[in-house]
Amino acid sequence: MPSILRPPQVEGRGGRSRRQVVVAPPIPVAHRAENDAVDRSVRSTVWQQIRPGALAAVQGLAVALLSLSTNVALFALSVVSLALIPALGIGFALFPAVTVLVRLSLTAQRRLSRWTGAPIASPYAPVPAGARLGTWQRFRWVVSDPATWRDFAWLIPGTITGGVCLLAFVLPAYGLEGALFVPLVLYLTIGWYGYGVFWPMDNLVKAWLAAPQGWLILAGGLAVAHWLVWLHFRFAGFFLAPTRAQELALRVRHLAATRADTVDTQAAELRRIERDLHDGAQARLVALRMSIGLAEQLMANDPARAARLLSEAQETSGHALAELRHLVRGIYPPVLAERGLIGAVQALALTVAPPVDVDVDLDLPGSPPAAVESAAYFAVAELLTNVAKHSGARRAWVSLVHRDGVLRTEVGDDGRGGATLDAGTGLAGVRRRLAAFDGTMTVTSPPGGPTVVTMELPCELSSRRTLPSSGTG
């Protein structure tokens, strides 16, 4: 028998035997760290395998609770409010409130669909300008929207499929109960058996035999949970998603709104250029003209003063030229024309003041159109300025990639977070600039960070622009 199981007896004084304690050598620190790393890797792998199913089980429970608790009640209220319309017109006061509640409930269900890989877009037409909540005009707009009646049509089918989604939670929970809860808790505490799918249980041995079937049901439940929730929302899309006609109508409204924003932005930009020219370069050029004219008059009688005036005129012309260059740089930066978007973004990253360290990851096999390049450049410049001024970050990153006809730009930082589109940090202006090119922007900025701004601009790439070499004149 090994000594670690039966310590050897050593003869002591007086013929007595005493037990010798054998101390095992300590495990080397390197081996211990390696074992810990392996354990963490195994736990991480196991969690990655069960995480989608576990999240889908929670999603299924949320969908089932929302559908079963609200759809039936809202359907009953809808029927009652419509039935009461002939009775003294009570339904006219009740039905608008029911309509609002239905929209709120189904908007929440559409948001849940984003978790599942089958997102459902909002089908509702925009609110008319000047329509206030609770007014008759707003109610007429809601009732005339076909999406409203499709919402009502979904209440009963949604209740049925929402109830089916409950299986996404019940199956894993039932399997976990059989695998652990019955053999470890119920019998040892109250001596009760109640779990058994394939055979009845009346003793502890059979309770433990339920564990394998419990693990089997748990694995099967986690495997099908995502598909149950996904099928629910795919079916819901026939009722809750925009129809083809609605998509076209919403698209036309979106393009009209972005066109109006683009026209307003261009008009404001022209006014800014005019103001900068009037207050800057134009004023200096007028002063330059006056100085040269006065010097011409003094040239014969006071050459020294005329020379001083010409020197001042030369300095004024230099300032005017610098202001014109600055103005042109704000319209289309020369660095874009010289180095392209990749070089321009790299130059922007170098201009961010410490302590912010900017990492750049650029993967563009070609060059976007000049207008798209300019929009992306100014968007990145504005966002990096926000990082330096408002975020309190020590690290930021910029990534550019072109996939499937879309230029995707991501700017993030590890700052304090909490950025919103209406916080006065220029994000709304960036979104308007991108909308002119049918681009989109999403902001993820929880309190405490990190902040990630993702921008997408549809475009095609041309051949990559070559940067000037160091030997080029």
Key traits:
473 residues, alpha+beta, Single alpha-helices involved in coiled-coils or other helix-helix interfaces, Heat Shock Protein 90, two-stranded antiparallel ribbon, 11 helices, 9 strands, 10% strand, elongated, disordered N terminus, disordered C terminus
Poorly predicted regions are 1-8, 467-473
- CATH hierarchy, class of the domain at 336-462: Alpha Beta
Elements, N to C (H/E): EEHHHHHHHHHEEHEEHEEE
Major sheet: size, sense and barrel closure?
5 strands, mixed
Strand proportion, as a percent range, falls in: 5-15%
User: Assembly state here?
Assistant: single chain
Counted beta strands = 9
The CATH architecture assignment of the domain at 336-462 turns out to be 2-Layer Sandwich
Query: Mean pLDDT score, rounded?
Result: 77
What's the alpha carbon Rg, rounded to whole Å? 36 Å
* SS-based class: alpha+beta
Can you tell me about this structure?
- The chain has 473 residues and is an alpha+beta fold.
- The protein contains eleven helices and nine strands.
- The strands form three sheets. A five-stranded mixed β-sheet has the order 3-5-6-8-7, with helices on one face. A two-stranded antiparallel ribbon has the order 1-2.
- Helix 1 (29-83) runs antiparallel to helix 2.
- Residues 1-8 and 467-473 have low confidence and may be disordered.
